[in-house]
Structure formats: C-alpha cells, structure tokens
Write a structure and sequence with these properties.
Layout lengths: L3 E12 L4 H23 L5 H8 L6 H17 L11 E4 L5 E3 L7 E5 L8 E7 L4 H6 L5 E11 L2 E13 L8 E7 L5 E7 L2 E8 L2 H19 L4 H31 L4 E6 L13 H24 L3 E5 L22 E3 L9 E3 H13 L19 H11 L3 H4 L8
Parallel strand pairs: 8-11, 11-12
Antiparallel strand pairs: 1-5, 1-7, 2-6, 3-4, 4-5, 6-7, 8-9, 9-10, 13-14
The structure holds zinc ion.
Zinc ion (ZN) binds next to loops.
C-alpha cells in the first residue's frame, strides 16, 4: 500500500488591470466584506449560527458569508486583539471557485469573481506566477482540491490567493519516524525541534538577526515616507526592496532547515497549516504585518519544496496554541515576552522556557503526542545506540553544526 500525505500550497495571481466598472465592483465587494467581518467580530459571535445571524442581511455572496461563518469563530478564539486590521482579504469557500483557461488569450487563465445575486458574477483575467503554472492546470483535474480562495487589494493591484491541497506519496513511509517541528517566529526567525523516541532533542535555531534588522529598517523608512506624504508607488518600491532582501534569507533558512531534518533517522517535517491564523504575531504596522505574513508563507513553502526534493515527508498541523501550550505537560501557560514561555502548572518541571523551542516541540508533538512530562535529553545522553548512526548523523549535521551545538541548558 502506498501512503499519501496531503500537501497544501497557495497559488498566487495578480488580476489583470480591471476596467473602471469592474474595479468599482471589486472595491464594493471588499468594502461590504470588511463591514460584515467587523460587525461579526465586534458582535462576539463565536459559533457558525451566531455569525450567520449577523451576516445574513448583508449584500454579499453566500460563498463569502459561508467563509465568515467558519472564519470568525476561529478568529475570536485565536486572535487576541481589540479590533481587527484593515487588510483582511475577502475569503470565499471553495464551492464558489470557477476558473477558465484558453491558450488563445493573452492571459490564459480567467477567474470568475463571485457576487451576491444570480447572474452578477463577472470574469477577470489573471496574471499567474509562472513557477506555479502546472498547479493552475491541475485545478482542472482531480489531482488537487481547492480549499478556500481570497481576494486582496494591495495598494494599486488586486491579488487572488487560492489554497490547494493535493496528495503526495510519502517518500519513505516508516513505522517510527523522527518528527521535526518548525516554528516561524519573531524572536527567532526559524526554530526546529526533533522528537526522538518521544523526547524532544537538539533544537536548531536560525536566528534571523538580519531579517529583524531589515524589518526595523523598513519600519523607520516607512514612517519617514509617510511623514513626507510620499506617493504610494514609492512605498511599494521600498516594500519590494525589503521583500527581495528577505527572499535570500528565506532560501538560506529553508535549506538549513531541511539539512537539519535530514540529519535525523527517517525524518518527517511538521509545519503549521497556513490556512489558520497565526497567533502571537507582532501586529505592528500594516507593512510589518504584510511583510511578516509574506515571509511566513514563503518560508513554509520553501521548506516544503526542499523537503520533497530531498525525499522527506511533510505534515501539516493546526497551529492553534502551539506557542501558548507547555510542550511537557500540555497546559496552557503564558508568554510574557517574545523569548520566554512560562508554564503555570505547579506540578510541571518546566518553569520558564525558550518560547520558540517550546512551540517547535509542540508542532512536532501535535502529530505524535509523547504524553506527560518528558525531560529534555541532555547533549551527553543523546548518543545513539549504534555507532553507524553516529557517523552518518555527525557527517550530515555538519552544515548546521553551529546551531546544533546550542546547549539546552541555555534555554531550560
Ligand atoms: Zn508544563
């Protein structure tokens, strides 16, 4: 029997510049959606039927209303904010997804924009990302399933995101894999943690100091541009600059992450499912959020791509509470600073813990719970029983030798 894993990917396309008429309809869709979302969020509705009561009177397609019914309750649970940001995309459920393809057109793919009322939907050409072309074609087959799709206005352009799921054959299905969870965070850009025989082992940390510096620099630059009332294209241009700089960091971090995972026996990489909202983000300025969301999605995608190339299976888990839960006892604790997680369970041996490692251990453990209070293995006790494993592990771990040597005492 061939085992299969469901992989998730987000397809991205920019809408070809719409006519003035279509642009107004897009703007109206976004405006109505945001009013509905705000109304539902502020009403405190936390069940599908409570949200339904709020959204029913709005002139919004049922696909967007249905998306709100599942999204808003989840939002109220995971998003610790007095008000929601103004940059939420319009979400639609997969039932409303229609595209058309013709090689005769300049823009071969067209998307049907759902609208309230029968016959009101309209078509718009897409500029797809060429790297994703084969996946766009797969949308016409049974090979992929559309999850949800989202429309977002980015200053001067409109962007469509489509979440797709598809089955990949597990590269090497084994009975006892080593699961390695990765947490993408603020204090450290990327933190990996393996779970061996039910015990968290040797974390990997990509500090990402350069990424933080870039974010800080961007924040300052943006503020200055806003104070000077700079044109929007100037701001967009700066954003592109920072995005390109971050791309290099993302490539390096994802390569190291997969090397780290490959140093374990029968590795399986565990990542957070992007279709959920990330908790504990630094919700600072709009640009900061946008850049962070982009880096988060990109890093996840690249780890997945490189893992599959390396023959390593990837699993996705729901990220809810991964950074607030104690990896040892499962209790919800507190995270008073970005760097430290505190377990409030008096019976648990964990008091304060490096927050990103705790989150990564939770992500690995979400697939394969290791039960109660398991102490970390010390570096010394970590030697595998058979010598051959030691050799191969040591040899393969060399590229990321520095982060692997981080002592646990420093975090415990
Ligand atoms: Zn605990």
């Amino acid at each position: 029997m061939v085992a299969e894993t469901t992989a998730t990917k987000t397809l991205e396309a920019t809408l070809a510049p719409p006519t003035a008429h279509k642009e107004r309809r897009l703007e109206r869709t976004v405006a109505t959606y945001r009013r509905t979302l705000e109304d539902a969020f502020e009403s405190g509705a936390d069940t599908q039927s409570a949200v339904n009561d709020v959204v029913t009177p709005y002139t919004l397609t049922s696909y967007a209303k249905d998306a709100l019914k599942s999204y808003v309750p989840q939002l109220s649970r995971t998003y610790d904010a007095a008000e929601i940001g103004d940059d939420h995309p319009v979400r639609f459920t997969n039932r409303g997804f229609r595209i058309d393809h013709s090689s005769e057109r300049t823009h071969e793919f067209c998307w049907r924009v759902p609208q309230a009322g029968r016959g009101n939907a309209f078509w718009i050409p897409l500029r797809i990302n060429p790297e994703q072309e084969s996946l766009w074609f797969d949308l016409f087959t049974d090979d992929v399933t559309v999850g949800e799709f989202r429309l977002q206005q980015h200053r001067t352009t409109w962007v469509l995101h489509v979440t797709v799921e598809y089955d990949v054959v597990d590269p090497e299905p084994t009975d006892d894999p080593t699961r390695i969870g990765f947490d993408i965070g603020e204090s450290k850009l990327l933190t990996g943690c393996a779970c061996q025989d039910g015990t968290p082992t040797q974390p990997y940390i990509y500090d990402g100091g350069r990424a933080r510096a870039l974010r800080k620099e961007m924040h300052t630059t943006l503020k200055r541009l806003q104070e000077r009332d700079a044109a929007e294209w100037r701001i967009d241009e700066r954003f592109d600059y920072y995005q390109n700089a971050l791309t290099d960091i993302v490539e390096k971090a994802s390569r190291e992450a997969v090397e780290y995972a490959a140093s374990f026996e029968d590795p399986v990489i565990v990542l957070e499912d992007l279709s959920h909202i990330r908790e504990n983000l630094d919700y600072g300025t709009y640009m900061n959020r946008r850049l962070h969301a982009w880096a988060f999605a990109r890093l996840t995608d690249r780890i997945e791509d490189k893992a599959l190339e390396a023959g390593i299976a990837v699993e996705f888990v729901n990220p809810r509470y991964t950074s607030q839960t104690c990896h040892a006892c499962g209790h919800i604790g507190s995270r008073e600073s970005q760097a430290a997680f505190t377990c409030t369970n008096a019976a648990c041996w964990v008091s304060e813990y490096q927050a990103d490692i705790n989150a990564a251990a939770n992500i690995a453990g979400r697939v394969d719970p290791w039960g109660e209070s398991v102490p970390w293995k010390s570096e010394r006790d970590d030697s595998p029983r058979d010598g051959s494993t030691v050799d191969s592990a040591t040899a393969r771990r060399e590229p990321s030798a520095r982060p692997a040597q981080t002592t646990l005492a420093e975090w415990g």
